[in-house]
Amino acid sequence: MNCGSGKPIFFQRQPMLPLPVQRLLRLRLEAALEDPKDRALLVWPTVLGAPKLRQDHPDGIPETVLFSHAVKMLRNLGNEDPEATWREGMTRFPETAERGETGFKPHSDWGSLGPLVSLRCGVALSALTELSVDASYGLKAGLVLFNSSLYHETHDALEMIWKNGLGDLREGLQGLILMTAGYHHLQLQNRSGMKAVWEESIKRLHAFGGLLDTPWGKVDYRDAIQLTREREAYLDLGSNDFEPLWAMPVPRWELS
């Protein structure tokens, strides 16, 4: 799910999402991070907000159609029962959808953002589906979400590990979280926000030399921190033109 330039589709300016939409995305992602089987919760917003399905079924997507479009995504997660998964998801998160004349529509809380919710959940789902379910799942989730330019989601993923971290691990994760926050501010074009958190991120990460040791491997952020320094230096010039910040390479983290 990349744009034509080879950059992640979300590596560009993004709108500030209304609180109900932020909550919808956050709660499902948190569930998927806490228990990998709950990655299935991301399937339903992906399907419900898909523009072509909404165009074909303006009065609601019939359950049979809903399930047929979900089955492959669920099967990739080892889930073979879309109907039971749908019922469980609606019980836990009834604000996912509401009934129309012919089936289900995105809940009114989504407003006009159905396509964006669908795309955001779909990219997150695709990233998380690749991951093996083992002790490294939480950290790897943070890495693949960062490399997908889903910076708000990356923050949530790393914060769940950071809460239980100690010493250098906690300090290093905080530095990575701050780097992520800066790129989220870049998406919102908040100049002062990105500058402040990038300065703090660079300060906290300096001691680790671009490699953060974790119980699950080393996070290599050397290229990312260099690109962040270059962006932070550009901000020091005082320009309000954001295009050079987008033109620089996309930051990436690797696990070794």
Strand order of the largest sheet: 3-4-5
- In the CATH scheme, the class of the largest domain would be Mainly Alpha
Terminus-to-terminus distance: 24 Å
How large a portion of the residues is in β-strands, by DSSP E? 5-15%
Structural class: mainly alpha
Instruction: Compute the number of helices.
Output: 12
**Beta strand count:** 5
Largest sheet entry: 3 strands, antiparallel
CATH structural fold name of the largest domain: Hyaluronidase domain-like
The rough form would be described as globular
What does this structure look like?
- This protein is mainly α and 256 residues long.
- The protein folds into two domains: 19-129; 137-255, Hyaluronidase domain-like, CATH 1.10.3450.
- Helices cover 58% and strands 6% of the residues.
- The strands form two sheets. The protein has a three-stranded antiparallel sheet with strand order 3-4-5. A two-stranded antiparallel ribbon has the order 1-2.
- Strand 1 (97-99) and strand 2 (104-106) form a beta hairpin.
- Helix 1 (19-34) packs across helix 8 (151-162) and helix 7 runs antiparallel to helix 8 (151-162).
- The model is unreliable at 1-5 (pLDDT under 50).
